[in-house]
Each structure stands twice: as C-alpha cells, then as structure tokens.
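To illustrate the input format used throughout this study, we show a single complete record. The first block contains the structure-token representation of the backbone; no residue identities are included at this stage. The design step must infer an amino acid for every position from geometry alone.
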C-alpha cells in the first residue's frame, strides 16, 4: 500500500507537458533563444563575426554590450510593464538586423559598412537586454523550487543546441573554401532566416498569470507595475548586498568570450574549422548545464549544501581549464601566430580543440550556477525579472570592456589572466551569498537592501 501511495505521489509530482505548464513555457523560451541568441553565438564564436578583420566585429560588439548594459538593467522593469510577448518580440527582432549588417559588410568593407555594423550592434544591445531579462524571469520563477536546476539545464541545453547547429552553417557552407578569409553570403542569410522564425515564436508564450504548476499553484498573481515603481526597484538593486556580491560573477560570465573567440579560435584555426569548433563548444555547454543543473537539484537534501557543492565543482574545473589555457597561450602571441590549424591537421589539432571544448563546458557550468543562485534568493517573478536584468546588465558592461581590450590590441596573455582573476575573485563572493540561502523561499518577500541587512543580523544571532 505504502509503495502504491508513493508511486502515485511521484506520478502527481512529475512535470506534465501541458501548454500552460512551466516546463512547456521554459522549452518555448529555450527555442526562442535557440533561434536568436543561439545563432548569434554561433556567428560570434567564429571570431570577427566570420570576417577577415576583427576590428569591425570588435567595435560592433562594444556598441552592442554598451547598450546591453543599460537595457539589461532596465529590461526587467520593461518586462514587468509590457509582459512577455511584446517585450520578447521587440527584443528578438534586432538579431536579424545584426546578422544582416555582416551580410552588408561582406560587400561594403568601408566606412559605410562599419557604420551599419556598429549601429546594428547598438540596436541589438537594446533588444538583447529586453530578451534576456524576460528569459531570466521565465526560467527562474516558473519552475517549482525542487526543479529549478533542471529547468535551467533544459533551457541552457536547448539554447546551446541552437549555437551548436548554427556552427554547422559556416562549417558546411564554407567546407570547400579552406583558404577563405571570411564566410560567404549564404551563411549570413541562413542565420537571418532562423533568427526571424525565433522572433515570431515569442508570440506563442503565455503571460505569467496563465501558467499553472502541476500542484495547481499559479506562477504569479496578476500585479501590474508602473514606471515609477520599476525605476525605484531597479535603483534599489544597486544597494542590495547579495546582488553586489554577485557583480564580479556577472562580469566574469561573459568577459571570456572575446579572448576565447578572437584570441583563441580565430587566431589558431582557419574559417571552416572555427565553425566546426563552435559545434563542439556549444555542444559541451549542453553537457555542462545538464550535469551541474541536476547536481544543484539532487546531490543533497539541503539547498545551501547543494550550492556549495556546485561552487566547488565550478572552482576546481575553472582552475584546471584556465591553467591549461595559460600553458597553450605561452606558445604564441598576438604578433607571433602559428600557422592556422585545420580540423584535418591531426594530433596538433587535438589539444587546442579539447581546450576550446573545456572553455564551453566551463561557460555553461558557471552561468548555470549564477542563475541557480539568483533563483534561490526568491520565487517572485517580478523580482526575478529585475535580478535577471541586473545580471545581464552588469555582465554586458564587462563584455563591452573586454571587446575594447581586444580592439586596442591588448596582449592575449593579459586577457587570459584577467579572465582567470575574475573567476578567482568571484568564487569566495558566491560562497558568501550561499551561506544565507534557505531551503525554501516560498512566501518570502523579494530580496531588498533592507531585507539583506536583516538576514545578515538574523544569521549572526543564529550563529
């Protein structure tokens, strides 16, 4: 009898594929990001956006992440005002324009092409800020507490499947061009078609009040916000101690892309092999997110302990990976590059390829940990949209700096050491956040500067 009851209870607890279930909505936002940011990542991971000169790409990405930093922070408030469909439709539409600017640059590698590329980058930064704030709110607030890590890993796997499949576009369409210096027009057109589909897919998302968990609870009550409230709540984020402790991790989580794509992938491999490498870089992210997501949900009954285990795994793997990166970086420099490697180069290709895959694994594990940590602070959908905006805004400010470092020809070795240093700095700060994480935040008020201070006093009294 006990076994039957347990089985029935487990059956009721299992997520069901209802259209208005959190799981289906997370899968949908996953496929939106599969088509838009996923294809963008495939494009960017080739280094230089697939162009012979990295300068245009560096400047476009600087403009992108500068506006992303602003609209990332504002994005959570805009999402709370406008809801998911309009916010995400508007935000995702600029990915198509950005890919189109590279198509234009293929034929106008002059001041006009540069201007279009930079303008498209700035507009995409605005759109991406809105898209990722909405994505963060959906991914962190919709799942039940016991499944947050798994839902994050499901999203991350679908999203990176897009980048992985997107990597086949430049590889396949440029396979017979081993000596080409930039990708062909068909590559950019393929990206634009897929991005357009993803933008339209945002219209399939439900509003949060229509999403129902398997236990019958709704994701959030209908609470319409207003511009004054959102502006004040966004300002308060920068006074909240736990979010300020998270800031170095936010910066670190995208800072490394410039080095990995330009200083490593574009510097060591030919065009078709960069696309091939990208397939496995993003495929490794699917594995990294899945493993760490399940670990954060299931390795121990207490959420705080699971968090510390996740931090330890990321710290150890990160130190080993960047250590391997340092050993390889000491073999070349920006002005002393080795002959370009092809995926058919044999044993000399294997080592750099494995290192690039490890970079992808570390990226997914690190960002899964960051999102899981924010999701452990509250279940409130409005608050989590702001947290996601804070995360992406600070992350993008760091990325804008990283792209300019490369644009100003900063040594690859210096870029690598800065990335490694940011990881080392962020680990103890994540541990400080984790020590106050509760096993459940159901019914808790969203995190504020005042509540963080109060939690700190309570923790002292408990000790």
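Output of the design step:
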């Amino acid at each position: 009898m006990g076994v039957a009851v347990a089985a029935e209870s487990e059956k009721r607890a299992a997520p069901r594929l209802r259209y208005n279930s959190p799981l289906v909505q997370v899968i949908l936002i996953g496929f939106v990001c599969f088509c838009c940011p996923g294809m963008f990542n495939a494009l960017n991971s080739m280094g230089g956006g697939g162009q012979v000169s990295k300068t245009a790409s560096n400047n476009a990405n600087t403009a992108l992440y500068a506006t992303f930093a602003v609209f990332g922070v504002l994005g959570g408030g805009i999402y709370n005002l406008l809801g998911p469909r309009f916010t995400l439709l508007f935000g995702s539409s600029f990915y198509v324009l950005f890919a189109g600017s590279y198509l234009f640059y293929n034929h106008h590698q002059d001041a006009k092409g540069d201007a279009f590329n930079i303008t498209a980058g700035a507009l995409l930064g605005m759109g991406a800020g809105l898209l990722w704030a909405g994505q963060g709110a959906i991914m962190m607030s919709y799942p039940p507490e016991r499944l947050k890590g798994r839902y994050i890993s499901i999203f991350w796997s679908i999203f990176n499947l897009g980048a992985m499949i997107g990597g086949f576009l430049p590889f396949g369409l440029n396979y017979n061009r081993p000596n080409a210096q930039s990708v062909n027009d068909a590559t950019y057109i393929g990206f634009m078609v897929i991005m357009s589909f993803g933008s339209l897919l945002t219209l399939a998302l439900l509003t949060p009040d229509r999403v129902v968990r398997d236990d019958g609870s709704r994701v959030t009550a209908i609470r319409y916000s207003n511009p004054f409230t959102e502006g004040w709540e966004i300002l308060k984020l920068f006074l909240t101690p736990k979010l300020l402790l998270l800031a170095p991790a936010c910066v670190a989580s995208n800072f490394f892309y410039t080095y990995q794509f330009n200083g490593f992938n574009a510097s060591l491999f030919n065009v078709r092999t960069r696309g091939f490498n990208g397939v496995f870089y993003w495929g490794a992210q699917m594995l990294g997110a899945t493993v760490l997501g399940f670990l954060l949900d299931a390795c121990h009954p207490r959420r705080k302990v699971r968090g510390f285990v996740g931090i330890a795994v990321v710290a150890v793997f990160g130190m080993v990976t960047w250590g391997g990166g340092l050993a390889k970086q000491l073999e070349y420099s920006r002005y002393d590059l080795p002959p370009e490697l092809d995926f058919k180069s044999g044993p000399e290709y294997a080592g750099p390829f494995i290192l690039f895959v490890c970079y992808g694994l570390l990226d997914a594990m690190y960002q899964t940990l960051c999102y899981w940590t924010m999701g452990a602070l509250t279940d409130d959908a409005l608050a989590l949209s702001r947290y996601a905006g804070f995360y992406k805004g600070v992350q993008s400010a760091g990325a804008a700096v990283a792209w300019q470092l490369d644009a100003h020809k900063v040594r690859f070795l210096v870029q690598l050491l800065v990335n490694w240093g940011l990881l080392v700095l962020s680990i103890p700060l994540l541990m400080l956040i984790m020590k106050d994480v509760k096993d459940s935040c159901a019914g808790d008020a969203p995190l504020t500067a005042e509540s963080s201070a109060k939690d700190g006093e309570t923790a002292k009294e408990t000790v």
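Structural context for interpreting the output: Residues 1-14, 451-463 have pLDDT under 50 and may be disordered. The chain has 17 helices and no strands.
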